[in-house]
Each structure stands twice: as C-alpha cells, then as structure tokens.
C-alpha cells in the first residue's frame, strides 16, 4: 500500500477526515475450477486514497445480499457471488 493503513480510528485532532466505503464483487464458478473473479483490494484502496496521507479505521468484510444468496442457491452453488466491503477513514494531516 502506498499509504499507511491502521485499524484504529483517526485521532480527534487530525486534519481532514473523510469516511469512505467501497463495494466490489467476488465470483466463483464451479468451486473455482472454471474460473474466479477476485477483487484487488490493494488497487481499489490505492485509487480511493489518492491525495490523502493515511487511512484509519480500515476494515474489509465479506457479505452477501439476498440476490447473491438466491443466485448461489438456485445454481446449487455452481456460481457463488459475494460482495467485498472496504471501509475506512481517509485522513489528510
């Protein structure tokens, strides 16, 4: 990562603090045998953090919405979809 990343929240005296949230999709075809689509978390965070000094309260989660859950179960798990959620605070000192 080109900027420092921390799981701790930004200090109260920090300069500009901007919350951000990115959602990217992950797909798996036939348990990965016929391909997979894995998001590049570092590239997405690097793009979002341009012009900022660091990232605080950084968190990456994997979730599934009802549409992705339904698609996964209707295809008998042959095509699995998930959402990768990247959250944090962009800090400019």
- Which structural category fits the helices and strands? alpha+beta
Overall morphology: elongated
**Average pLDDT over all residues:** 89
Tally of distinct domains: 1
* Beta content: 35-45%
* Widest beta sheet: strand line-up: 2-1-4-3
Helical content band: 10-25%
| SSE string | EEHEHE
The count of strands amounts to: 4
Distance between the termini: 18 Å
3D architecture notes:
There is one protein chain. The chain is an alpha+beta fold and 93 residues long. It has one domain (16-92). Helix content is 18%, strand content 43%. The chain has 2 helices and 4 strands. It has helices at 41-48, 66-74; strands spanning 16-29, 36-37, 54-63, 79-92. It has a 4-stranded antiparallel β-sheet with strand order 2-1-4-3. A hairpin with a 6-residue loop joins strand 1 (16-29) and strand 2. The mean pLDDT is 89.
In a few lines, what is going on in this structure?
The chain has 93 residues and is an alpha+beta fold. The protein has helices spanning 41-48, 66-74, and strands at residues 16-29, 36-37, 54-63, 79-92. Helices cover 18% and strands 43% of the residues.
